[in-house]
Automatic annotation (TrEMBL):
Residue ranges that the Swiss-Prot or TrEMBL entry lists as coiled coil: none
InterPro entries according to UniProt: Cell_wall_metabolism_enzyme, Dup_hybrid_motif, M23ase_b-sheet_dom, SH3-like_bac-type
Domain M23ase beta-sheet core: 207-299
UniProt cross-references to PANTHER family, sorted A to Z: PEPTIDASE M23 DOMAIN-CONTAINING PROTEIN, PEPTIDASE-RELATED
SH3b domain ranges (all copies): 338-384
Domain of life of the organism encoding this protein: Bacteria
CDD domains the record matches: M23_peptidase
Entry protein name: M23 family metallopeptidase
Organism: Rhodocytophaga aerolata
Pfam families tied to this protein: Peptidase_M23, SH3_3
Length: 449
């Protein structure tokens, strides 16, 4: 009977969702139409318009999205994670990444599902302090699951990934760091930099306001971006120099120690155009030929150019943890397991758990699992510490009529009733609950005293 009622409720939800996504839903008030909304916000508003936020699943979906903005996991780039979302468990996953000014973050999402599934990808400025609302920066969805974002400051960013309601499937998210500018010396890259930002100059009287890129005399120095030539002149320190105005970013790029200048003031250039030839003019007369490359921004002055031109991060390593466990309960296999804040042995531990503790497999990163503990703690554990929760570790005899629960909590819902004298196989344990399987094959939680 309960199952039939659940099916009726799901059918009703499906009907409303079909109307919502295919018929335009309820007409929005004019102020909502005029307000520019992200794909995520449009979908959330549509849920509210047809009162789906008043259903348990609809409310859980909205709460999951908001919770993800306050509870993220810090990851290092490059990063690749494969995960699973279930139709009956609205979830949202989120990640924190740190970027330097001038770096680009490229986020890609691939979804595998039996049904057409809309997945929302959103990028935010991570709020500092965390009590503040995050600032939305960019969006992606099923039609465009790639976000390419350039950071204009050193800060943390938050990426949230959430599927629409009542859809299940696997997702893979990749994140890499890329330069925002082309490298300013033809045929070279950041591995040819020999002197970096902040190094001592003139016996410590000043600091190096740029990077030095060594190359043969006469090597082309090229435009690192589109713009126009702001100045072509000569000075004591830089020798023959060229200033390129980067109109997109409101900054100027400084090319110094040139042997020849091959552009004129006011000339428009595109990335890759030759501006001059590498030399050692100015105060570089006693050194090998090289380009001094600097970036000067409006209102700030000189900034470190390295993040904007260095080689991007390599492709993230593939997931090697067994993915057939996605969306299932498993258990720890050793004497203890350590759940960490990131998929790295050096990261901070979140929880130390005993042997045969159940964990729900949310995703995989390299040879780590992303797991949720029965107390809703989410973190990473090495895949080698996990085994399938199929073979019973022992049996438990039921003394009286007992309810099997859907969660290890006294307030959880009932899954099944077990008669006295029944021997239940125990698959895992957590606190005062056993994870068991009934004679009908229903897996759930048995409270014990």
């Amino acid at each position: 009977m309960n199952t039939n009622r659940s099916m009726v409720r799901l059918a009703a939800l499906w009907g409303m969702l079909f109307f919502l996504t295919n018929c335009g839903g309820v007409q929005q008030p004019l102020k909502e139409v005029l307000k520019k909304q992200t794909p995520y916000e449009k979908y959330e508003q549509a849920l509210k318009n047809v009162k789906l936020e008043n259903t348990a699943l609809g409310n859980d979906w909205i709460v999951a999205g908001r919770k993800a903005l306050q509870d993220s996991i810090l990851v290092s780039l490059p990063f690749k994670e494969t995960g699973y979302f279930a139709a009956d468990k609205p979830i949202a996953v989120s990640y924190l990444v740190s970027l330097k000014r001038g770096e680009r973050l490229v986020v890609g999402v691939e979804v595998r599902s039996m049904q057409a599934t809309q997945v929302f990808v959103d990028l935010f400025e991570a709020p500092i302090p965390t009590s503040q609302s995050p600032v939305h920066l960019a969006s992606g969805d099923t039609s465009n699951t790639v976000i390419d974002f350039e950071s204009r400051e050193d800060r943390l960013y938050l990426i949230r990934l959430q599927p629409e309601l009542l859809r299940s499937g696997n997702y893979t998210i990749t994140m890499t760091r890329e330069p925002s500018l082309a490298f300013p010396v033809q045929g070279k890259d950041s591995r040819n930099i020999s002197s970096f930002w902040g190094a001592d100059r003139d016996a410590g009287k000043r600091r190096h306001e740029g990077i030095d890129i060594f190359a043969k005399k006469g090597t082309p120095a090229i435009a690192a971006t589109d713009g126009y030539i702001a100045a072509v002149n000569e000075n004591r320190l830089g020798g023959k120099v060229v200033w390129l105005q980067d109109t997109k970013r409101q900054q100027r790029l400084y090319y110094a120690h040139l042997d020849e200048q091959l552009v004129r003031p006011g000339q428009k250039v595109i990335a890759g155009d030759t501006l001059g030839l590498i030399g050692n003019t100015g105060n570089a007369r006693t050194t090998a030929p090289h380009l001094h490359f600097g970036i000067y921004t409006f209102g700030i002055g000189a900034i470190d150019p390295l993040p904007a031109v260095r080689v991007g991060s390599p492709a993230p390593p593939n997931v090697t943890a067994p993915m057939e466990r996605l969306g299932t309960w498993a258990r720890t296999s050793g004497k203890k397991g350590i759940v960490r804040i990131s998929p790295d042995k050096k990261s901070s531990p979140l929880s130390e758990i005993l042997k045969h503790t159940p964990v729900y497999i949310l995703g995989g990163v390299r040879d780590w699992y992303k797991v949720s503990l029965p107390d809703n703690t989410i973190g990473y554990i090495e895949a080698k510490q996990i085994e399938n929760a199929e073979k019973p570790i022992r049996t438990q005899k039921i003394a009286s009529l007992t309810q099997i629960l859907d969660q290890p909590a006294a307030s959880a819902g009932f899954l099944a009733t077990v008669e006295p004298g029944t021997q239940l196989p125990v698959l895992a344990s957590f606190g005062s609950f056993l994870y068991v399987k009934t004679p009908d094959g229903i897996a759930g939680w048995l409270p014990i005293s």
